[in-house]
Write a structure and sequence with these properties.
197 residues; 15% helix; single chain
Length: 197
């Protein structure tokens, strides 16, 4: 029953992402030809919560005045670290999603991540666990571009911040965790530095 519910959530998110992408592309008028590509890194996560490194490439799929839609593809890497409730833990993931810009830099984001998680020397049973994990999330944020007239510049740097929630929707091989009562959505904040080119 729980697996069917998680599968329904994943299917709905994928449908929303595809719909936004194709609806945006069907409104081809007003697309800015320059500076459609971008690259960004998360400056916050290496510091807080710590030891997580995230980067991605973005592509402005469509634009009509201030409304625009970006798709993105990236990664996150968390090297091994010891956790009192789990043991040694590490994970990495391919990340992908969609950003809907509503007004200037104000945007909503649908986030997805898929990749392996590793637990070594589990504190409960001493075993090692490998799992394929799927995470989903929703964020709201704002992007500030430093150069106003970006069409005349080779690159346009920006800073963005986002707030929202992620949820670990599926795991192929969950490992035991002390005092664990089940997966719950958890708060996420980002601080990204990027460039449009």
């Amino acid at each position: 029953m729980l697996k069917q519910s998680k599968q329904k959530i994943m299917n709905k998110l994928i449908i929303v992402l595809i719909t936004f992408f194709f609806v945006g592309n069907s409104q081809g008028q007003g697309v800015i030809e320059n500076k459609r590509w971008g690259a960004e890194i998360n400056l916050l996560w290496p510091i807080f919560p710590g030891n997580i490194y995230k980067g991605q490439v973005t592509y402005e799929a469509w634009r009509r005045n201030q409304l625009a839609g970006d798709v993105y593809l990236g990664f996150h890497i968390k090297p091994f670290e010891y956790r009192d409730t789990e043991g040694d833990f590490s994970n990495m993931a391919l990340t992908f999603g969609y950003r809907q810009f509503l007004w200037k830099g104000l945007h909503l984001e649908v986030y997805q991540a898929f990749g392996p998680g590793f637990n070594r020397n589990n504190v409960i049973d001493g075993k090692d666990y490998d799992s394929w994990d799927y995470e989903v999330g929703g964020l709201v944020g704002y992007r500030w571009e430093f150069l106003k007239n970006r069409d005349e510049k080779k690159v346009s740097p920006y800073i963005s911040t986002q707030h929202g929630f992620y949820y670990l929707a599926a795991q192929s091989n969950p490992h035991p965790i002390k005092d664990f009562t089940g997966e719950k959505p958890f708060y996420v904040g980002t601080l990204n530095f990027g460039i449009k080119f």
